Every structure is written in structure tokens, then in C-alpha cells.
TrEMBL record, chains A, B:
Transmembrane segments: none annotated. One of its GO terms (molecular function) is DNA-binding transcription factor activity. Residues 24-43 bind DNA. SUPFAM superfamilies: Homeodomain-like (SSF46689), Tetracyclin repressor-like, C-terminal domain (SSF48498). InterPro entries: DNA-bd_HTH_TetR-type_CS, Homeodomain-like_sf, HTH-type_TetR-like_transc_reg, HTH_TetR, MT1864/Rv1816-like_C, Tet_transcr_reg_TetR-rel_C_sf. Keywords: DNA-binding, Transcription, Transcription regulation. Gene3D superfamilies: Homeodomain-like, Tetracycline Repressor, domain 2. It comes from Micromonospora craterilacus. The lineage of its organism: Bacteria, Bacillati, Actinomycetota, Actinomycetes, Micromonosporales. This is TetR family transcriptional regulator. Residues 1-61 form the HTH tetR-type domain. Residues 169-190 are annotated as: Disordered.
Length: 190, 190
DNA sequence: CTCTCGCGGCTAACGCCGTTAGCCTCTATT
DNA sequence: AATAGAGGCTAACGGCGTTAGCCGCGAGAG
């Protein structure tokens, strides 16, 4: 295992265990038994470390999502993943700047899964993506009141899109709307 | 105008014009023609300033939302507000810690408006809130591909909930589901 | 076997950050 | 006229990411 990988490993452990304020170069170096400036022999700086963490996180999420075959499962996987790795989710979501560094292939996988489940209806796919992201974000931020039944909220959210799709499909026999597949799809994640 | 208000004003201008990385105590002091430590004669620290900014932002948003009478308008108002004040929106959304300092009344206004428009259906209200928040968040983060027609996405998102509500209302004549109003409603904002 | 070169550590330091301690001046009140 | 406090000031602390420059040690070349 390269030293660089060690650094990213420790960074991930630190982030997940103690939160973003503990992920500092000095602390990271301490954890590795070296001095902070030595980190720069292996890594260009903190942004690169954060990008690498996003990279890892995204890959695992995308793989999980690509295996889903219905909307409810997809939503559940997305939510469960975010709740299981809240700091990584936050990092991925709060720092779109670093996404220049991400290999582009990873992000489209999840989007492709979603697009497949909505029969290529881009606006709907994006609306669902937004909803899933927003619900998770609010949940992680503790924005919902303590007693709120969030399972019910997700259920309702997914059901709404499911029934609406069915309704739309029933109404739109013959010539469809302007909902055909267009560009390769929105980037996923976050 | 009290010195404290002056500080918050400058902070808001600075945040909106130059972004969060420019909102530092020293810069703030410079802008006011004083030294950084002097700020502490009027304000307990940076968190208080950020809380005050959130407070202002939330109040204006809540007032705008409280005046809406249909879902599409509510969504449009929410989105327009966020796009008009992206930094303030980010600040309000990224720092739920500071919400201890917020007067509780402000946040419930918007939630009340949303709850009113969904006939007291809490899960639906929360799903819509999550969706609006998520879509705005992704849009601000530049997560959608360049050519994406986001107006269409919002239209689809709102339409989906509108038709689903209609469908549900039609199906649920007689005994309703478990969707009656419960707690005073989720806190709004974000 | 020796010489060299570079990997991977080190210390010192810079400029930023939020914040505290302690001083002083000026104004308004008693 | 005396006094208290509001509101400035400077100096400083500990932390942050990062850069500059030094050095030992081990591997590979001659």
C-alpha cells in the first residue's frame, strides 16, 4: 500500500469518526507519526485529499445504485448510504469545486440507473434526484422535528412519483410529450 | 442604527458580494474602519453574526412564502429567492448548528404555508419541502449539466405532486389515510 | 566497492484565521 | 468637577494550510 493510500485511509477514518473539523493536515500527520509538511511529499494539498475521499465515496454509491431495479429500492439505497456515511455525504455534497478532479465516469453511473427507472424522462429523473438529495440533506441536518416519521415521508415521496408516472403513461398513449431522452443525463451523486 | 446592525449589514454585503471566504472578522473590521478585536464590543463572535444573517434571510423568505396560495407559486418563490441570494441560502442551509439562536417563530411560517397547501398532509408537505430544497441545492452547486432545462424540471416536479394529490383525493373519498395533521409541522427554511 | 541521486523525512517560517487580555480616551451622567 | 462605561486600540495566542530549504539513507550505476 502506497503512502498516499495510507494518507487517504487515515483521512477517511478521521473524517468519519471525528468530523470535518478534525481533518487537518497536522492532525493527519500526527496520526501517521510524521510532521505535517511531509504530507506534501505524497499529496498536493488538502483539496486533493478531499477529492480522493469523494472519489471513493461516489464509486461505492454508484455501484450500489447501478444494481437497483426499482425506484423504491434506489431511494432506499441512496438514503441508507447517506445515513451510514454522513460526513462523506456532506463532503461530497458541500464541495462541488473539487469535482473537477473526479473521473467523469463515476458520476454518470447512478444517473444512468435513475434514468433507466424513469424510462428516459429527464425532468422526472432530475426531480427525483433532487428530492432524494433534499430529503437526505434535511434529515442529516436535523431539520425535521424529532418525532417525524421519515420512513413515511420517503414512502410518500416515492409513491407520488410512481403513481404520477403511471398516470402520465396512461394519458400519453400515442404521441408522447417532450420527455424523450436527451443528453447523456445529469451527473449523479451528492 | 446601532453599531451592531452596521456590522451585520456589512457582513451581509460582504457575504453576498464576495462569498463566505471573505467574511472574516478582520475584513469586516477593515470595512468598518476599525480593528478586528473592536468587533467583540458589539458582537459575541462570528457565529452570532452568521446567525443574525440567517435570521434576516429566513424572515424575508418566510414572509414571501406565507403569501402564496398555490404550490407552483410557492416553489417558484422558494427557488427564486435561493437563486437571488445564493450565499445566504447556503449559509442558512449549511450551518444548522446556529439554529439554536434563531427565534423559533420564523421558521414555522413557511412550514405552515406549505402545510396549508397540502391540506395538512405532513408526509407530502415534507416530501415537497425536501424536493424544493434538493433541487435548489443541486442547481446552486452546478450539479446539473449545462444545458439542462431546470424550469422544466421544476414544472414536472410540482406537477407530479399536484396530480398525485388530486389522484389521492379522488381515491380517498370517505375514510382518509393516516395523513392527518400531527405535530405543528416541520421547521421551515434551508 | 564506491558514488550519486532522489525519496521521504525534518525544522523554521509565512500569512491567514478567530479570539482574549489589557490599556486608553472620550463622552455623558451624577 | 468627578466618575463610569462605551468603544476604540495594540499585542498576543494557538490553530490553520502551505512553502522553503536541509539532510540521512538506501538503491542503482559505474
Amino acid at each position: 500500500m502506497s503512502r498516499r493510500e495510507q494518507i487517504i485511509d487515515v483521512a477517511q477514518r478521521l473524517l468519519e469518526a471525528e468530523g470535518p473539523e478534525s481533518l487537518t493536515m497536522r492532525r493527519l500527520a500526527d496520526e501517521l507519526g510524521i510532521q505535517a509538511p511531509s504530507l506534501y511529499k505524497h499529496v498536493s494539498g488538502k483539496p486533493e485529499i478531499e477529492a480522493a475521499l469523494q472519489q471513493r465515496a461516489l464509486r461505492r454509491l454508484a455501484e450500489a445504485l447501478a444494481r437497483t431495479s426499482d425506484l423504491a429500492t434506489l431511494a432506499a439505497v441512496y438514503r441508507r448510504w447517506a445515513l451510514a456515511h454522513p460526513r462523506l455525504y456532506e463532503l461530497s455534497t458541500r464541495q462541488p469545486l473539487a469535482r473537477d478532479r473526479l473521473e467523469p465516469g463515476v458520476e454518470t453511473e447512478a444517473a444512468a440507473a435513475l434514468l433507466r427507472l424513469t424510462a428516459g424522462d429527464l425532468p422526472t429523473a432530475r426531480a427525483i434526484w433532487g428530492m432524494a438529495h433534499g430529503l437526505v440533506d434535511l434529515e442529516l441536518a436535523g431539520r425535521f422535528p424529532p418525532g417525524a416519521d421519515l420512513d413515511a415521508v420517503w414512502e410518500r415521496a416515492v409513491a407520488t412519483f410512481a403513481t404520477a408516472s403511471a398516470t402520465r403513461a396512461r394519458h400519453a398513449s400515442g404521441v408522447g410529450g417532450r420527455t424523450g431522452p436527451g443528453a447523456p443525463g445529469g451527473r449523479a451523486s451528492g
